[in-house]
Specification:
Blueprint (H helix, E strand, L loop, with lengths): L2 H17 L2 H33 L4 H54 L9 H40 L2 H47 L1 H6 L3 H46 L1 H6 L4 H40 L46 E8 L9 E8 L4 E5 L6 H8 L7 E6 L2 E2 L13 E4 L8 E2 H6 L12 H10 L3 H7 L5 E2 L6 H14 L4 E5 L7 H13 L3 E5 L3 H6 L2 E6 L2 E5 L4 H4 L1 H15 L1
Parallel strand pairs: 3-10, 3-11, 6-9, 9-10
Antiparallel strand pairs: 1-2, 1-4, 4-5, 7-8, 11-12
Helix pairs in contact: 1-5, 1-9, 2-3, 2-4, 2-9, 3-4, 4-9, 5-7, 5-9, 7-9, 12-14
This protein binds adenosine-5'-triphosphate.
Adenosine-5'-triphosphate binds next to helix 10.
Organism: Streptomyces flavotricini
Protein name: ABC transporter ATP-binding protein/permease
GO molecular function, one term: ATP binding
Length: 606
């Protein structure tokens, strides 16, 4: 929406509001007229005091005229009292009307979307924004009225002193005011867009912050950055535009405020030549410097700040209430760029130009790894050796808190060992600081699945998006969906290009989407840290088999014995001891594993 559009919606309502309040406006105008008398007397008194009094040697007359000007100031003060009383009658009904409207909007939204998060902006509209509108409106009425009646008093005064003064003063004054007024609409439009973009950015960054750990762990930085960047760039552009308009406004203010004074001073010899007296000149300057310019200054400041603020706030109140199942409020961010068309032909999984491990080396290796969370803490892993073969499916089991997640974090390069080394594809596991984008060597899926607001397709392919690598094509995405058995879920969500709202998904459904994303990831090593814990045994089996069949190595932190039984080998963590072997041979070598299997079988028999 543009500022012009906002104005178009707000202006008729504003006219309607004022039309119903003719008497209040009339009372305000009457009090303000008294202010004009004050302005008139200010300049006229000075001119007469000089010409008829002090310069003519009649000091008493001069003092008399100055006293008259002073009395004008008293009248002005009295008038202002009446103005404030009238102002309350105009401003309070506006506030009441806005409060009523905010409540109606919140109710309408709740009725339109009973399952939604509700109108989250209603409280702000009811409190802060209503007060903001009231203050801005009061300030605007006060200054606009003051300017109009001061200008009337000053211009009538100049005309009474010598109409030729108007010839000199009016052109620069009108030029500056016109230039200033011309900046108002574009400025409001930019401010409105800037506010929208700022809110959209805050919304997006807030959501990203919630899943930051998972984004880093899953190597989703590039995909996430690609989505936030257009908003940041738009905000930067708007800030520059705003600064440009603000500079123009300052220039206009300077023209209207200072140029008439300079013009009057520059025209002094010409004016004196046409019989204008020193007192008349002093009176003209008094009108400009003491009345017109301060009033103009206040008006422009109020219009520039309170005016545009009022426009933006009122526009929010007059916004229709759209059904918003995602609960994102009524504001629209800058449109995001259309996604690039999908390149064809599509590459096969793992055949991307990224680093591919040589077949001969270990997929991952721990050599004498010791790790503790802190210098004084007991080590979680102590001298652990482990070699994960290329293409192997390894399950890690052990009691809660034994160090399974710590092990996957070391393999994911998120932690560094205190002693020993961790290698992935033959190189140190630690990710280089500053590296961005999906990790080309491995993908870690934590228990808390990362699903973001975007399309189903984006949620499935974000781990496969990297600079220089084409996105997976439709056929590959559908293969992943079918391998994981997600056809029904994808259909229910509305297809690959339908939007996903993470809060509407169950934890199991989120995990299934994340698993499909891992399936499409080209990284040769997949690390699943209880990433199937919200799936039923059948869905878990299907997912694990699909991921194990995918070219590459799979390490799974298993929370069911059935999951371990499917793996090529099982690593049992038991205290600081670790035993590794096949599901069949392990019960004889690890009492803990034997116990686990025994209890599992018994539960199955029951
Ligand atoms: N960030 C941390 N700071 C300090 N201690 C930690 C931290 N993370 C884990 N620990 C501790 O390290 C030990 C191993 O934790 P870890 O999460 O690796 O175990 P786990 O086997 O994965 O447990 P679970 O099966 O419950 O997830 C636990 O005692 C845990 O309390």
């Amino acid at each position: 929406m543009t500022g012009g559009g906002a104005w178009g919606r707000v202006a008729p309502e504003g006219r309607l509001f004022l039309r119903g309040r003719g008497r209040v406006v009339g009372r305000l105008a009457a009090w303000s007229l008294l202010e004009s008398a004050h302005t008139f007397l200010g300049g006229y008194g000075v001119a007469r005091a000089l010409d008829d009094g002090f310069l003519a040697g009649r000091t008493a007359t001069g003092l008399g005229w100055l006293a008259a000007a002073g009395a004008g100031a008293l009248i002005g003060g009295f008038a202002l009292r009446g103005v404030f009383a009238g102002l309350a009658d105009l401003v309070e009904p506006l506030r009441d009307g806005l409060v009523r409207r905010a409540v109606r909007q919140a109710l309408d939204r709740a009725v339109a979307d009973p399952a939604g998060a509700g109108d989250t902006g209603a409280v702000s509209r009811l409190t802060q924004q209503t007060e903001m509108a009231r203050d801005s409106f009061a300030g605007l009425v006060l200054t606009a009225r003051s300017f109009v009646f001061t200008a009337v008093g000053a211009l009538v005064g100049m005309a009474a002193l010598a109409p030729v003064l108007l010839l000199v003063v009016l052109p620069p004054l009108l030029l500056g005011v016109a230039a200033f007024l011309a900046t108002l609409r574009p400025l409001a439009a930019v401010q409105r867009r800037s506010l929208d973009t700022d809110e959209a950015l805050a919304d997006r960054v807030g959501k990203l912050a919630e899943g930051l750990r998972d984004i880093v762990a899953c190597g989703g930085r590039t995909a996430v950055e690609a989505r936030a960047e257009p908003l940041i760039a738009a905000q930067e552009r708007l800030a520059r535009t705003l600064a440009g308009w603000a500079a123009l406004r300052t220039l206009a203010l300077g023209t209207a405020g200072r140029l008439p004074v300079i013009a009057l001073l520059a025209a002094t010899p010409w004016l004196l030549g046409r019989g204008i007296t020193a007192g008349t000149l002093a009176g003209g300057l008094t009108y400009l410097v003491q009345a017109l310019l301060p009033a103009l200054n206040s008006l422009m400041t109020a219009l520039g700040s309170a005016g545009t603020r009022l426009l933006v706030v009122l526009e929010r109140f007059s916004a229709p209430v759209p059904p918003d199942p995602a609960g994102h409020g009524t504001l629209k961010p800058e449109p995001e760029p259309e996604p690039e068309p999908e390149p064809e032909p599509e590459p096969e999984p793992l055949s991307s130009p990224r680093p591919v491990r040589p077949r001969s080396e270990a997929a991952a290796e721990l050599r004498g790894v010791t790790f503790a969370y802190g210098p004084g803490a007991a080590p979680v892993l102590d001298g652990l050796d482990l070699l994960v073969r290329p293409g192997e499916h390894l399950a890690v089991v052990g009691p809660s808190g034994i160090g399974k997640s710590t092990l996957t974090a070391l393999l994911a390069g998120m932690l560094s060992p205190d002693a020993g080394s961790v290698l992935v594809a033959g190189a140190a596991a630690r990710r280089e600081t500053g590296s961005t984008g999906p990790d080309p060597r491995r993908t870690l899926l934590p228990q808390q699945a990362y699903v973001f607001t975007g399309t189903v397709r984006e949620n499935l392919t974000h781990l496969a998006v990297a600079p220089g690598t084409p996105e997976p094509g439709d056929a590959r995405v559908r293969r992943a969906v079918s391998a994981l058995g997600l056809e029904e879920l994808v259909a229910r969500l509305g297809g690959l290009d339908a939007g996903v709202s993470p809060r509407l998904l169950s934890r199991g459904e989120s995990q299934q989407l994340a698993l499909a994303a891992a399936y499409l990831s080209p990284a040769p090593l997949l690390l699943l840290d209880e990433a199937t814990c919200h799936l039923d045994p059948a869905a878990e089996e299907r997912a694990e088999r699909a991921l194990a069949d995918r070219p590459g190595t799979l390490v799974v932190v298993a929370h069911r014995v059935s999951s371990a039984a499917r793996a090529d080998r099982v690593l049992v963590l038991d205290g600081t001891r670790a035993v590794c072997g096949t599901h069949e041979e392990l019960p004889a070598r690890s009492p803990l594993y034997g116990d686990l299997v025994g209890r599992w079988n018994q539960a199955a028999d029951d």
